[in-house]
Specification:
The complex is a heterodimer of chains A (about 650) and B (about 120).
Chain A (H helix, E strand, L loop, with lengths): L10 H12 L4 H7 L8 H8 L3 H14 L3 H20 L4 H8 L2 H15 L2 H33 L8 H7 L11 H29 L23 H9 L2 H11 L38 H22 L3 H16 L7 H24 L6 H14 L8 H14 L12 H11 L13 H6 L10 H21 L5 H13 L7 H5 L3 H31 L29 E4 L4 E5 L21 H4 L31 E6 L5
Antiparallel strand pairs in A: 1-2, 2-3
Helix pairs in contact in A: 3-4, 3-5, 4-5, 4-7, 10-12, 10-13, 12-14, 13-14, 13-15, 14-15, 14-16, 15-23, 16-23, 17-18, 17-20, 20-21
Chain B lengths: L4 H16 L4 E2 H11 L8 H13 L3 E7 L5 E7 L1 H23 L6 H5 L2
Antiparallel strand pairs in B: 1-3, 2-3
Classes of the chains: A mainly alpha (about 650), B alpha+beta (about 120).
């Protein structure tokens, strides 16, 4: 085959022939095909042509300036040499040939452009790909440079000092109105008081379990230590010998505020909290604010609970009441962080208290005096407002995060800053907002500007979070039949957070749904306990149980206890052979005559009782008040939620 | 007289295609023939001719072939392809219309139109 004979070839084969004829990558083919000019370069051809020096130089310069492939340069040179030789043969002068040739530089440029147009499709495709990649790279570089400039120059504007604002609320109270100093002293004394016994009990439990870890030690399980437990007697003795400090603890619970000066978490055990600086820029994010009093209050409640049971078993009615009263006072004691966590701790302490009240009445029905029962009833009523969950603390934490992580354009909007990005990354490492913990390595710095494109702006995040919290407050106010609204909001957040790790709302949002369940449940348990106290008072006054709850109102109960699983209806009351029951119809919404649901998961969730109606796209259908329309509670298991079950014969 | 650059850019390729429609020609031959037959109006140097030829080749209007000349040297001969013939026909029609229009305006004598046939 002669690749230089195009007249006998189709256009496709000509293209192929051309490519293998001229491509520098296929010199090997040319060698195999024995092409005459395959090895020639334009200089060899010029030397062989033996042209006059000026013409030689003219062609050499022109061909060199084309900067084409070697084979293309040779082909052009061969044609220009042939042209020049023909001109010389026709007796044209050197001068004439040079003048008619034109400017070598311009000629080289035109030849280069025209020759490249002749190159094959694969070459032009590769060239276009290269150009596209280069253009995209340039675009990326320009975009990245712009983003980098915005990212690294963005600075937050930290103006609000939330930590100082929270602590300042303590200043309105005198020192003798603050419980925290006593709590700290009592707890330190308690730790020392039980240290040896605790070690001994733990070692003993471990030994009984063949050297394995064992948590059955009495001091690890109060208040619920069975009276026949091996450590019961020793644990009771430890409590009795601690009575002077317990007395101080009970008294401290009745002070109006906890009065702790909150600081930032500085070490794992919160031993050296960092006091808030008056300059907000020097403070860590409010997420780092320690709330050590919550754990301490839970521990205090457990101590008081066990001492209640000890006192009741000793028939010490005053101490029994004082402990119960102190436990309820704990939940009423003011703190100023206004966080959901504080509310949940209050709920936990209230649940413990109502359980202990029930247990005391069950086991020692005549121990508490009439006055004690009346007082407890009143104190339970006083406790209710403190059980109303608040998310003001969470809102402060979120707004503080935004002011530290975003720029501020003065109109409520801004973009994520490099410090803000590190705070988001820090969340992954659970250092909670201390950017210094994140290594400013090359990868982080390079990736940083790109996050401007994926981290939502300040305004959208603030709007979303505040809207979520407004919905939360709305549900708390309206009742559990609106609980589906929170799922609706969470769906909106999911839709707005394509990359959740880079969305402040996603990682700063607490578990709102579950806390709502707890809030509504504690309303029912406190009402049930108030009703229990009313029934006991009624029994003492009349000598028998009431036939119905309505007999208690208004003398013993201002209002009947409401069943939040049964809108508009009171809790059910049933006299049994051995005592009486107070129960809710629970998740299935119907009265099963006090038959308990065996599986707790089927009644504790109000979302099962009040499932929303949804359209075909899965969106919740709202009524004209903005609350969800409800579907039948089909998912709940048959049965009731037993709130109070007194089995001691009363009649 | 030489044509201005823009006019040459329009007329040059058609002139080259027309010459190649009669026979295969090599570069110097094309230059000489163009200069002679157009009284120097379409005379062009190598800087104009060869880029033009390469462009026509890249468009598939002409094709090239190295052949031995009678004097023993190699020359690259250019031929018109089928596509080139179609293009030449279209160009000639366009030129006819243009010259007819110019004649109607009195810019060209009527005889010019007939010369393009």
């Amino acid at each position: 085959m002669n690749p230089s004979n195009p007249s006998t070839q189709s256009s496709l084969s000509r293209a192929w022939t051309w490519s293998i004829q001229y491509s520098p990558l296929l010199n090997a083919y040319r060698l195999l095909a024995g092409r005459r000019y395959s090895k020639a370069n334009h200089r060899d051809l010029l030397t062989a042509a033996n042209l006059p020096k000026n013409l030689h130089t003219l062609i050499d310069t022109t061909v060199k300036k084309t900067k084409l492939w070697k084979s293309e340069r040779a082909d052009i040179a061969r044609e220009l040499i042939a042209h020049t030789q023909d001109a010389l043969d026709a007796n044209r002068t050197e001068q004439h040939i040079i003048e008619s040739f034109g400017d070598p530089k311009k000629t080289a440029k035109l030849l280069r452009r025209a020759t490249k147009r002749k190159r094959p499709l694969y070459w032009r495709t590769l060239r276009n790909i290269r150009r596209t990649i280069a253009a995209l790279t340039l675009l990326l570089f320009i975009t990245y440079t712009g983003l980098a400039a915005r990212f690294f120059t963005g600075q937050p504007n930290i103006t609000k000092n939330y930590a100082v604002m929270i602590n300042a609320q303590n200043d309105a109270y005198s020192e003798d109105q603050k419980a925290w100093p006593i709590y700290k002293e009592v707890e330190s004394a308690w730790v020392l008081h039980i240290a040896d016994a605790q070690q001994r009990q733990t070692d003993n439990a471990s030994e009984l379990n063949g050297g394995q870890n064992d948590w059955s030690a009495g001091l690890s399980n109060y208040p619920q230590i069975p009276t026949d437990h091996r450590d019961y007697a020793e644990t009771v003795q430890l409590f009795k010998s601690f009575e002077p400090q317990l007395k101080r603890l009970r008294q401290a619970t009745h002070r109006p505020i906890v009065g702790i000066e909150l600081g930032f978490i500085n070490d794992q055990d919160y031993k050296n909290p960092l006091p808030p600086s008056t300059n907000p820029e020097e403070n860590p994010s409010l997420i780092n604010l320690g709330l050590p009093h919550l754990g301490q209050m839970k521990r205090s409640a457990k101590i008081l609970a066990f001492d209640t049971l000890i006192a009741a078993r000793e028939q010490d009615s005053d101490r029994t009441y004082q402990n119960l009263s102190a436990m309820l006072a704990l939940t009423r004691q003011k703190t100023f962080d206004h966080t959901l966590l504080t509310g949940l701790v209050n709920i936990a302490i209230t649940n413990l208290t109502t359980n202990i009240i029930t247990q005391v009445i069950q086991e020692h029905p005549t121990l508490l005096t009439r006055n004690h029962l009346v007082a407890l009833s009143h104190e339970l009523a006083l406790t209710r407002p403190s059980l109303q969950l608040s998310v003001e603390g969470e809102l402060m934490m979120f707004d503080d995060f935004l002011q530290r992580a975003y720029t501020d354009n003065g109109k409520g909007n801004g973009r994520i800053t490099s410090k803000g990005l590190f705070m988001l990354l820090d969340h992954e490492q659970e250092n909670w907002g201390d950017p210094s913990q994140i290594p400013a390595n090359t990868a982080n710095l390079l990736a940083g500007p790109a996050t401007l494109a994926i981290v939502p702006n300040r305004k959208s995040q603030a709007t979303l979070y505040h809207s979520m919290m407004a919905t939360y407050k709305h549900i708390l106010k309206e009742g559990p039949h609106t609980i589906a609204l929170i799922d609706n909001q969470e769906q909106i957040i999911d839709n707005n957070s394509p990359i959740p790790d880079f969305s402040p709302v996603t990682f700063l949002l607490p578990a709102l749904g579950r806390s709502l369940d707890r809030s509504f449940m504690v309303q029912m348990t406190t009402q049930a306990t108030t009703t229990l106290l009313a029934i006991e008072l009624y029994k003492r006054d009349t000598g028998h149980l009431p036939d119905t709850l309505s007999q208690l109102s208004p003398n013993y109960l201002p209002t009947l206890p409401q069943d939040l699983f049964n809108p508009g209806q009171p809790l059910k009351y049933k006299i049994t052979d051995t005592g009486y029951l107070l129960y809710s119809v629970a998740g299935d919404g119907d009265d099963d005559n006090g038959k308990a649901v065996d599986d707790k998961r089927h009644w504790v969730y109000f979302s099962k009782r009040y499932p929303p109606l949804k359209d075909q796209q899965g969106n919740i259908i709202l009524d004209n008040t903005g609350n969800p329309k409800l579907a039948p509670p089909s998912r709940a298991k048959d049965g009731d939620w037993i709130l109070i079950n007194i089995t001691t014969p009363h009649n | 007289m030489k044509l201005e650059r823009e006019l040459m850019r329009g007329a040059g390729p058609t002139a080259v295609l027309k010459l190649l429609s009669t026979q295969s020609m090599y570069g110097y031959q094309l230059v000489e023939t163009l200069a002679k037959q157009t009284n120097g109006v379409l005379a062009m140097g190598q800087s104009t001719l060869y880029p033009m030829l390469y462009n026509l080749q890249s468009k598939g209007l002409i094709e090239a072939e190295w052949q031995d000349a009678p004097n023993g040297r190699q020359r690259k001969y250019y031929n018109l392809t089928t596509k080139g013939k179609r293009k030449l026909k279209a160009d000639l029609d366009a030129w006819k219309k243009l010259t007819g229009a110019m004649a109607n305006l009195g810019v060209l004598p009527d005889t010019t139109v007939g010369a393009l046939a």
